[in-house]
């Protein structure tokens, strides 16, 4: 029998419950983009953590939206499929619930979890927002009554509180087997994909209130040299009238998006970055299957 353990661990929950933040802090690396806007994550994202003899293969997923199946746009249905497709092909499920209390969106996710035999660990997130920790006790009791979780673990990912215990709990559920990735590998995604996500993160953070989910980013050209990289990328929107929102007065907003994204990309690549952004219109792309596929949402 192998001395090592390896397993897939999917991170599920309603939108904006803290899935990507949890992944980033477990990895101690900014891999998944974050914002205060719900459904910032749109794709499954593999995050690899090798911890002694144990290798965790985390799958960050989009928030499960209860409305997507009935009245949602094609991109919302795509995000739900991305999340739910992981239910039965993993070794452990992390079900995230905010420490501030149970919500209707949590019930929607739990309904899906009850259809699988995969072990589920409930993670109570953002407990740093709960001043009186005694208030967590009724929530823990409520969760224990709702489902036979393997464990219920409170965490404050931004403060790295509870993460070591969570990893120990998950490790105990993983099967024996060889590691699938080298110890220094953290994802199977391409550099181009990660760069595009860092640009989109700034679009969402700076324009989320005005363009909630009507924009995406395409990295069109990536010129990598020894000490510098030149990136040509387009921010795609749905209507011509949205161009002025993205560009801003005198180009101020586009420059701000580019400047912050450039710094983050430089940190990721440890190189000087020349980032050249353009704004392009792709009409109704969020509700058109062919457009979604062409933009990488397959």
Walk me through what this model shows.
- Helices cover 34% and strands 23% of the residues.
- It contains ten helices and nine strands.
- Helix 4 (104-113) links the parallel strand 4 and strand 5 (120-125).
Q: CATH H level of the largest domain: which superfamily?
A: P-loop containing nucleotide triphosphate hydrolases
Overall tally of structural domains: 2
What CATH architecture of the largest domain do you see? Answer: 3-Layer(aba) Sandwich
Name the helicity range. Answer: 25-40%
Shape: globular
The name of the CATH topology of the largest domain is Rossmann fold
Report how far apart the termini are: 38 Å
Keywords:
three-stranded mixed beta sheet; 9 strands; GMP Synthetase, Chain A, domain 3; globular; alpha/beta; Rossmann fold; 298 residues; six-stranded mixed beta sheet; 2 domains
Please provide a brief summary of the model:
The protein is an alpha/beta fold and 298 residues long. It has 2 domains: 167 residues, P-loop containing nucleotide triphosphate hydrolases (Rossmann fold), CATH 3.40.50.300; 104 residues, K homology (KH) domain (GMP Synthetase, Chain A, domain 3). The chain is globular.
SSE blueprint:
Layout lengths: L4 E8 L6 H9 L17 E7 L2 E7 L7 H4 L2 H11 L7 E7 L5 H10 L6 E6 L10 H11 L4 E4 L8 H9 L19 H17 L8 E9 L3 E10 L5 H5 L4 H18 L2 E10 L7 H6 L4
Parallel strand pairs: 1-3, 1-4, 4-5, 5-6, 8-9
Antiparallel strand pairs: 2-3, 7-8
Helix pairs in contact: 7-9
């Amino acid at each position: 029998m192998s001395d090592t353990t390896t397993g897939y661990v999917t991170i599920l929950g309603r939108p904006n419950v803290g899935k990507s933040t949890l992944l980033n802090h477990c990895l101690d690396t900014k891999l998944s983009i974050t914002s205060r806007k719900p459904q910032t994550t749109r794709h499954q994202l593999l995050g690899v953590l090798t911890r002694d003899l144990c290798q965790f293969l985390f799958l960050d997923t989009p928030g499960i939206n209860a409305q997507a199946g009935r009245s949602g746009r094609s991109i919302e249905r795509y995000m739900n499929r991305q999340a739910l497709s992981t239910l039965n092909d993993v070794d452990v499920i992390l079900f995230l619930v905010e420490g501030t209390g149970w919500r209707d969106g949590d019930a929607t996710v739990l309904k899906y979890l009850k259809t699988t035999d995969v072990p589920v660990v409930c993670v109570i997130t953002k407990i740093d927002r709960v001043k009186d920790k005694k208030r967590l006790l009724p929530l823990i009791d409520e969760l224990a009554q709702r489902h036979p979780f393997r464990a219920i673990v409170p965490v404050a990912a931004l403060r790295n509180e509870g993460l070591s215990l969570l990893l120990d709990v998950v490790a105990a559920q993983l099967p024996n087997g060889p590691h699938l990735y080298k110890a220094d590998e953290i994802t199977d995604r391409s550099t181009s994909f990660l760069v595009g996500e860092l640009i989109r993160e700034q679009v969402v953070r700076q324009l989320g209130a005005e363009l909630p989910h009507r924009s995406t980013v395409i990295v069109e050209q990536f010129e990598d040299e020894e000490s510098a990289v030149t990136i040509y990328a387009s921010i795609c929107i749905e209507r011509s009238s949205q161009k002025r929102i993205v560009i801003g007065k005198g180009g101020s907003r586009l420059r701000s998006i580019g400047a912050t994204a450039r710094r983050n990309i430089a940190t990721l690549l440890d190189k000087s970055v020349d980032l050249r952004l353009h704004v392009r219109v792709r009409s109704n792309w969020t509700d058109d299957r062919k457009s979604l596929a062409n933009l990488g949402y397959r």
